[in-house]
Amino acid sequence: MTLSFFTRRDDRATELVPRQLACSMWSKDQMHGVALSGALAWAAERRLAEAGRTDLRPARWAVDLFRPARMVPCTLSAEIEREGRRICLVDVILSQDGERVARGTATFLRPSESTDGEVWEPAERPQPPAPEVVPPSTVPRAPYVRSSADWSQDFLAHQNAARKATWSTAVPVVAGEPVTGFQAAAATADGASMVTNWGTRGIEYINTDITLTLAREPEGVEIGLLATDRVEHDGIAVGTAAVFDRRGPLGSVLVAALANARRTVDLGSVTYTDDGRRSNR
User: Fold this and answer.
1) With b meaning 16 or more CB within 10 Å and e meaning fewer, what string describes 3-25?
2) Secondary structure tally for the chain: helices H, strands E
3) Is residue 253 a contact partner of residue 225, using CB atoms and an 8 Å limit?
4) Which helix or strand (DSSP H or E) is residue 185 part of?
5) What whole-number distance in Å separates Cα of residue 251 and Cα of residue 203?
6) How far apart are CA 228 and CA 249, in angstroms?
7) Whole-model pTM above 0.70?
8) Comparing C-alpha atoms, which of 38, 33, 39, 32 is closest to residue 13?
9) To which H or E segment does residue 91 belong?
10) CB of 137 within 8 A of CB of 154?
11) pLDDT tens digits for 123-164?
12) How far, in Å, are 39, 104, 223, 235 from residue 255 at the CA level?
């Protein structure tokens, strides 16, 4: 079967059923944030399309994770909170068994011409892995990671305290539907917790929210993340990562996370098959 995080329930547009690929490493009955953010973004894009706003593109995406999402059917409801000539705000709620589990808020803006004034930008930008190291692909596969070790899919080699980057090929959100650039970026944004909170003992923090900003949509479905900052105090961590594709920078993502040492995810014991399925060593 084609890889995806969800299937539609009885072909109803607002109900999705999680597949095994959506299962988190925190628990066998808990979905991970990549699938949740992707599903919320999928619903937001559908609502924008229903409004006929093909002139807008995503600029900001914020996700609040109210409670752990279980591996059970999800209901998504999307509403336009504000619509103007150059802007549209869409709110999406994901519910399970009548309880609100997560919320996504999208800001779509209409692009225009850039101004003539000069503004500071950093001279150094994150770089994707070289094509000879990671060949370009649209097929989902195990993520590549770089730390003090070079790009590889060997997670054990990267379980260290070094600065990290990841390179992922997005998994389709819904079976039978191609993943869009926005869905790819929104889903991958949850991985900012991985690049900012992955240390010598694995991931000991669980993120509570995601804030993604995009100056442009990705070209294709390959997305990179590079840790740019991390601040932690009293079990609360704030991590920032740059978002990029093979063309260059896209924007940034910010995640807040809580210490969760009693349920650490030991990535050093994780391996992936060629088709992107996760297994343990």
Assistant:
1) ebbbbeeeeeeeebbbbebbbbb
2) 3, 16
3) yes
4) helix 181-189
5) 24
6) 13
7) yes
8) 39
9) strand 87-96
10) no
11) 999 999 999 999 999 999 889 999 999 999 999 999 999 999
12) 18, 14, 17, 14
